[in-house]
Amino acid sequence: xNKDYENGIEILKQMTDINGVQAIKSLGNIFPDFxxxxxSFGFGQVYSRPTLDLRTRExxxxxxxxxxxxxxxxxxxxxxxxxxxxKSEEILEIxxxxxxxxxxxxxxxxxxxxxxxxxxxxxxxKEAK
Length: 129
Description:
Shape: globular
Number of strands: 0
Structural class: mainly alpha
């Protein structure tokens, strides 16, 4: 694979666990060129740019996904945001901010997804103790 692809995989490993990496890579089973472009460009070139850190990029990504109503991507990116250090309160504030600019229906959908992830993460944390 090319350098951007390898760099993209390294970025993904910072953002997610092996399941998240595999979920992204599984797109290659359907369309290998798509998977290669998404990892090489999206993560290997864009997410790796030095001016914004990964945490800040996730704030921008969450906001963009919510305002677009692209909820199918939200699960992955909320989990990545948590892994990168965003606190649950910060994610909830992002949703509130989006409600003011994108509307309550989109914010409500985002909140429902977020609530489920928070429950799963809380249960996982209890299991780990």
